[in-house]
Amino acid sequence: MAVTIRDVARQAQVSVSTVSRALSAPGLVKEATRQRVLDVVAGLGYQPNRAARSLITGRTGNLGIVVPDLGNPFFPAVLRGVQTRAGEAGTSVFFCDSREDPRTEAELVRTMAAQVDGVVLCASLMSDEQIVDLADLTPLVLINRIVPGVSSVLMDSASGMDQVVAHLESLGHKHYVYLGGPEAAWSNHRRMQGLRGRAQLLGSFEANFGGGGTAAEQALKTGATAFIAYNDLMALGVLSRLAALDVKVPQQISVTGFDDILYAAMCSPALTTVHMPTEEAGQVAVDLLAGLLDGGPAEQRELPTNLVIRASTTAAAKHE
Amino acid sequence: MAVTIRDVARQAQVSVSTVSRALSAPGLVKEATRQRVLDVVAGLGYQPNRAARSLITGRTGNLGIVVPDLGNPFFPAVLRGVQTRAGEAGTSVFFCDSREDPRTEAELVRTMAAQVDGVVLCASLMSDEQIVDLADLTPLVLINRIVPGVSSVLMDSASGMDQVVAHLESLGHKHYVYLGGPEAAWSNHRRMQGLRGRAQLLGSFEANFGGGGTAAEQALKTGATAFIAYNDLMALGVLSRLAALDVKVPQQISVTGFDDILYAAMCSPALTTVHMPTEEAGQVAVDLLAGLLDGGPAEQRELPTNLVIRASTTAAAKHE
DNA sequence: GTGAAAGCGCTAACAG
DNA sequence: CTGTTAGCGCTTTCAC
């Protein structure tokens, strides 16, 4: 069995409570005593048993994050942010992939709730009501989703989309289409708002490579000179399909994405897209969670996004 | 406060021990009693307190996974496999990104060790000795790394590389170079073995997009007709740089990657690469961990890899 | 088959 | 400032 607090107490010639205090309430112990305890702790390699501690404090020192799809590079980036900030506080992080199923999401949050101090929920597909119920169960912070009364951090999609539109118009594009994401995705609606009705809307497609391909074919029929994809994964599908159809990007069609995932800079032509501060969002989410745990109120935070202009957009083709 | 075992006991008119048994040792309780308890459990929505349970059993019901870089899509895929299998067993998973630092790796494993039943360590950069020490501390399963006496699951790089070489030679390539990964990466050495000395070795580069670009320039000077990249991320960098230099792939140079990350199929030309059963590896790792926890011996498991031929390779150019 | 009781390792009053 | 004591919620002997 591992070394316990009693071992430390014995060797440091103090009571267990002193050891406990030396470790978690330094101010309450005489400096000399504290030092002695710390030395013994180091010498013995003592690590407090978290189960015992949490049994009594009611806190686990853990937190959870639920994402819809680990296969979308966007989410691992958020994970990284969460872990970075959490790690600084000595907090460990559980993760779960809901595979884009709202039912699974709810179940995962419930399961996690039992063993974490709070959970971060990314791009949730659940209804507002479900989310409120969950927030009632455990401290909850949303990423890219707003539900009244629930903490959230938002990467400003609307503004990002606004920048896309401005960019396209400055290039002389008059007719551009929006290749929509899933109907159920909150971000999809948010992004449409940023469009301000200036783009033709083209249905709703799966938010992945395949969906982009399908969307591209339909978009081609509209005669638009620029395609705005819901996200980068779709945009990559668009690029691929257009290449296959021998449509030149950006000479014939300009294409934009959203998210600025790793691949956006790696493909050719490199994708003009909206950069999302994903890691930062993860970090801020942890901060908001901390606030909640300290008894603070729910907070909303909005992080700026910015357009990254690369090679997939150019001036609109002259009238042909 | 949440509902406890005593609440259940009271309402079911039995003792707490009976409730406990009904839940975790069904055989020791009369069926009728058990049913009554289960009904109450369901009615009250009772969830056993994991901290209390683990305090006494010594098991946490959690496991951890440490990866070198969440930004490489290869690793989220492994995470997914781990979580899938672990979830089936009601086990939750902690994750950590070591940012490719062996020191951080060791620290993370040590920290995790205190609150998990075992850890999965991916593509570790630590020395054999360090790993053995850690394996001594907590049940440990390695992915893509072999250390004597420690459990591991291997995706067969050597064979994969062998297939790459065979493919290239069947296309008539005589002179091809290997753009090496990090010196410290075990997989890098393993992959070189698969080369069997038939490729020219070209230093060691960062295993990412940037590294690929650098490597491509050097490789061009060798006059080789095919470039074998350490991994897909590098290969994508190669593709990008060659495109910038107006070198046609595959007409002038054939390029291969390794891993078959999502994007390998999305880029153009689509990448010929070695497919790795990442999710499966994650699942098998969990199985091996379970074996270890049941007191079983360390085991090695090897998963097959296979070449996926796409558009980035073609017959060697005729003598120019 | 079931109950009573003894802790798991730790923190948090409460004294001193 | 430090020690003593009483549990946190659960599993697990040990009786019956």
From TrEMBL, chains A, B:
HTH lacI-type domain span: 3-57
Keyword Transcription attributed: yes
The alphabetized UniProt keywords are:
DNA-binding, Transcription, Transcription regulation
Q: Which GO terms describe its molecular function?
A: DNA-binding transcription factor activity; transcription cis-regulatory region binding
* PROSITE patterns named in the record: HTH_LACI_1, HTH_LACI_2
Q: Which domain of life is it from?
A: Bacteria
InterPro entries, A to Z: HTH_LacI, LacI/GalR-like_sensor, Lambda_DNA-bd_dom_sf, Peripla_BP_I
In terms of CDD domains, this protein maps to:
HTH_LacI, PBP1_LacI_sugar_binding-like
Q: What is this protein called?
A: LacI family transcriptional regulator
Species of origin reads Lentzea alba
